[in-house]
Specification:
The chain is mostly helical. Helix content is 84%, strand content 0%. Helix 1 packs antiparallel against helix 2.
Amino acid sequence: MSKNINFEQSLANLELIVKELEKGELSLEDSLKQFEKGIQLSRLCQDVLQQAEQKIELLSAQNLQSQAT
């Protein structure tokens, strides 16, 4: 799974996979493949969100530090 795909695209792809799985029309093998893709996309989205959260925390800490001086 390429990390060049942005968060919004990954989330949209994950939503499509969920909808497809919820229909229940896929074979077991195809369902497992889609589930695996969904897990990969979910992890990618979690990583991107975690990185964004860390960046926000860092910027907030820097802002507080500059206001204190």
